[in-house]
Design brief:
CATH architecture: Beta Barrel
Number of domains: 1
Shape: globular
Largest sheet: 18 strands, antiparallel, barrel
CATH topology: Porin
Distance between the termini: 19 Å
Protein name: Alginate export
Strand content: over 45%
Number of helices: 3
Structural class: mainly beta
Oligomer: single chain
Order of helices and strands: HHEEEEEEEEEEEEEEEEEEEEEEEHE
Helix content: under 10%
Pfam families: Alginate_exp
CATH class: Mainly Beta
Number of strands: 24
Radius of gyration: 23 Å
Length: 456
């Protein structure tokens, strides 16, 4: 905590609030070439460091992030572990450098450090990694003209596609995901296409001790077509190979293929997000046949003060219907973002039906609040409940009950200035008849967190 406070004090002194900032989820997507003509402030001198006398597109850009979060779980796993109140503190720090070596070549490198303190049952796999290379890749523009562009990216890199349903950088948890491999990025007009082959790593908590898989375990293509006035159309193929995957159906090697599409539009007026995917492949000596479909429809009242939005979302995600039929029906969310169905890390996008109304409103230009209610059922009573990562949480225990429970959520987001943001959230989870059936003396869950983030 002392490290974080020191960083905040230095930042307040060195970075004036009037400086322009353009931070993005993926920091390597930022471009500061325009800063060469801006006023010489300390901040701008970090974002644009010329590497030649003529300046232009040969420059170095530096940046980073400090994030601190307080978390309080009460009755984690609905009392099954008997932990009760479990407050803890997590921190994350990153620094990065972006070398632009001309109009066609750039190198991006980023270090991260993530820590957990105080959790009774120790850090989760998403909490702690003391020091690691988060990104280190080279981009080469093989084709670059007014009509089209083809970029080859090789090395360690973060991935994030669509709504984060299947491939996400996972910004919510303390540890963001990364992969090692090769990606081709093509763009022409309103069409974009990425093709990639990647290797995931085994995460350990020490310094530079993560282990590369040494074999391709994620590959695919993600494509986007912008349809003027109508919205955005995405279609994708994703493949994975994993050893010792665990489902209620069993444990074994898994090769899975996903074909899917998404059609969406955000902005004023009607909002919609439709997505569906089908999975096939092999698990153990059997086959895979799984699917998901999601609809999120809403409306933004852009001419009303606060621009309130109301939305209704409904998800269907398959589970396994028969353990002994040689066919696995459990959907695999691959590499999803955490907390996709609320803050509770005990329910994820596997074997699930949910109905999710929610609403947002801007209290000011800097403050946004949101309220949600999520009703959760098991899709198949022959399958259990899975966590957001896709790992098995609770087996079905032959229970015939479907209803898992109801989550009530509220969140508050405050953009303090161009460099600092603060958000806090609370979730109360009322257990349903399925949890009541299989956990003796189960308890409702309460989750509270507060996070402050500084970026430069």
């Amino acid at each position: 905590m002392k490290k974080f406070i020191t960083i905040l004090l230095i930042a307040q002194i060195l970075l004036p609030v009037y400086t322009s900032a353009q931070f993005k989820l993926m920091r390597f997507d930022e471009n500061y070439e325009a800063y060469q003509d801006s006023a010489k402030t300390f901040y701008n001198s970090l974002k644009y460091i010329p590497l030649s006398e003529n300046k232009g597109n040969k420059y170095l850009s530096l940046g980073g992030e400090a994030r601190a979060e307080f978390v309080e779980f009460n009755n984690e796993d609905w009392g099954r572990l008997g932990i009760g109140s479990n407050p803890f503190f997590i921190q994350r720090y990153t620094v990065h450098a972006d070398w632009h070596l001309g109009s066609r070549v750039r190198v991006f490198g980023q270090l991260r450090s993530a820590w957990e303190n105080g959790r009774k049952n120790g850090p989760r796999p998403i909490d702690e990694d003391h020091l690691n290379v988060q990104n280190l890749f080279i981009d080469v523009d093989a084709v670059k003209n007014e009509k089209e562009k083809l970029t080859v990216r090789a090395g360690r890199q973060e991935l994030d596609y669509g709504s984060g349903r299947l491939i996400s950088v996972r910004e919510g948890p303390n540890l963001r995901l990364y992969f090692d491999g090769l990606k081709l990025m093509y763009q022409k007009g309103n069409f974009k296409s990425d093709a990639f082959m990647m290797m995931a790593s085994e995460i350990n908590t020490g310094a530079f001790d993560n282990k590369l898989s040494k074999s391709i375990n994620l590959w695919g293509s993600y494509n986007t077509l912008i349809l003027p006035k109508s919205g955005n159309l995405e279609f994708y193929y994703l493949g994975i190979h994993r050893k010792d995957s665990r489902f209620e159906d069993g444990i074994g090697d898994e090769t899975r293929h996903t074909l899917g599409g998404r059609f969406w539009k955000y902005g004023g007026g009607f909002i919609y997000n439709f997505e569906a995917a089908y999975q096939f492949g092999n698990f153990n000596k059997g086959t895979i046949s799984a699917w998901t479909a999601s609809a999120d429809i809403g409306y933004m009242f852009e001419n009303v003060k606060g621009k309130p939005t109301i939305n209704l979302r409904n998800d269907y995600i398959s589970g396994d219907r028969n353990k002994d039929d040689g066919k696995l029906g459990t959907f695999n969310p691959l590499y999803p973002k955490g907390g996709y169905f609320g803050f509770n890390p005990q329910i994820g996008p596997v074997n699930l039906i949910d109905i999710h109304p929610y609403a947002t409103v801007d209290l000011s230009s800097k403050i946004t609040v949101q309220a949600d209610v999520v009703f959760n059922w098991r899709y198949s009573i022959q399958d259990g409940v899975y966590r957001p990562s896709g790992s098995l949480n609770l087996t079905s225990m032959n229970s015939k009950k479907r209803y898992i429970g109801t989550a009530f959520l509220g969140s508050f987001n405050y953009k303090i200035n161009k460099f600092f943001t603060f958000n806090t959230g609370i979730q109360y989870f009322k257990t349903g008849e399925f949890v009541d059936d299989i956990i003796e003396n189960d308890k409702d869950g309460l989750f509270v967190n507060s996070r402050i983030v500084f970026k430069f």
